[in-house]
Amino acid sequence: MTKREDTLLPPLILKDEQKSLLAELNLPKSIVSIVEAENNVKIISFEVFKNYLSILQERNGKRELKTVNLLNNKHYIHQFDQEPERNPSDNLRSQFYDVMLQDNLTFDEVNLNY
Fold first, then answer.
1. Could you tell me if 56 and 114 are in contact, meaning their C-beta atoms sit under 8 angstroms apart?
2. Which residues are 64's β-sheet partners?
3. What are the start-end ranges of the E strands in the chain?
4. Residue 91 belongs to what H/E stretch?
5. How many CA atoms lie within 13 A of 95 on its CB side?
6. How many CB atoms lie within 10 A of CB 54?
7. Which residues have CB under 8 Å from 73's CB, separation 6+?
8. CA triple 106-107-108, angle to 5 deg
9. How far is CA 35 from CA 1, 43, 89, 100, 102, in A?
């Protein structure tokens, strides 16, 4: 029987320049929960930025955009004004009104495309 290792991954071998960049990031030393699970919330998609995390989620059937500031861990929720359209024949939600996140390819960006 072997002893359990403290880490799941072997230690990284980094160059001095990489070590200094990693030190600047001020990463947590242990696992940190950024977004707590909620029973009535389904995460549709998310985008990660340098200082923000943007989450498109559905709460009780209504889509909303949650933005988490990674510097101070505060979050903001934007609820969309328009109700999802319903098909009059079967009263099911139509795909006509659908909010989605677009690809945000710039990590340092402060604007979100949706």
1. yes
2. 57, 79
3. 41-48, 52-59, 62-69, 75-79
4. none
5. 0
6. 19
7. 34
8. 95
9. 37, 10, 38, 19, 21
> In sequence order, which residues have a C-beta less than 8 Å from that of residue 59 and are 6 or more positions away?
38, 40, 41
Q: Do residues 94 and 86 touch, judged by C-beta distance below 8 A? A: yes
pTM for the whole structure: 0.59
Residues 71 and 82 sit within 8 Å (Cβ to Cβ): no
Domain ranges of the chain: 38-105
Q: Report whether 109 contacts 49 (CB < 8 A).
A: yes
Tokens of 99: 């909010």
Per-residue pLDDT of the chain (114 residues; tens, 9 = 90+): 445 455 555 566 777 777 777 777 776 667 777 888 888 999 999 988 888 899 999 888 788 899 999 888 899 998 876 665 666 677 776 655 567 777 777 777 777 776
